[in-house]
Amino acid sequence: MTSLTQDQKTEIVRLYKLKILNKNIATIMGVSKHVVNNYIYKDYLKTNERAKNTGAHLKLADDVIEMYKNGLPYKTIAERTTLKYHQICEILKLTTFRRRQGITIKNLREVQRMYEDGSRIATISYKLDLSYGQVEYWVRKIREGVYTSVH
């Protein structure tokens, strides 16, 4: 990959913010569109706020963290703050506080039923308000045949 100077990177960002197409930025800068795409999508947007993401949801971070610490489910937090599930998760990554909760037999059977019906792990996690890792763990056990239950 062609390495870009800091001036070129600054100019690419400026043109990108002006909503100029990446291929046109490449023509203006005299580099390939792949170089522009790689810089924008792999470097600039990963280290800066995405164009669509204004970060407005982070203003509610204190409220979200407080509700989470009080044991409210993600769905309730989403309803009270009008934030999306992924925005709540992004905010909660900022704190070191974690709720530890086991999975009930009822939830485990529901995970199994939903998985067998073809639901994705993320969907199961969201609908049952369980952590993705917890659902992923039990789905793996179900796949391996370690956990089987009679519905």
Question: What order do the helices and strands come in, and which of them pair?
Answer:
Layout: H1 6-17, H2 22-29, H3 33-47, H4 61-69, H5 74-81, H6 85-92, H7 105-116, H8 121-128, H9 132-144
Helix pairs in contact: 1-2, 1-3, 2-3, 7-8, 7-9, 8-9
What would you say this structure looks like, in words?
This protein has 151 residues and is mainly α. The chain folds into three domains: 6-47; 56-92; 105-144. Helices cover 62% and strands 0% of the residues. Helix 1 (6-17) packs across helix 3 (33-47). It starts with 5 loop residues before the first helix and ends in a 7-residue tail after the last helix. The model has no long low-confidence stretch (mean pLDDT 83).
Largest sheet: none
Mean pLDDT rating: 83
The tally of structural domains comes to 3
In one word, what is the shape?
A: elongated
Strand content: under 5%
Q: Sketch the topology as an H/E string, one letter per element.
A: HHHHHHHHH
Rg over CA atoms, rounded to whole Å, is 22 Å
Low-confidence stretches: none
Fraction of helical residues: 55-70%
Short account of what is shown:
With about 150 residues, this protein is mainly α. It contains nine helices and no strands.
List keywords for this structure.
151 residues; mainly alpha; 3 domains; 9 helices; 0% strand
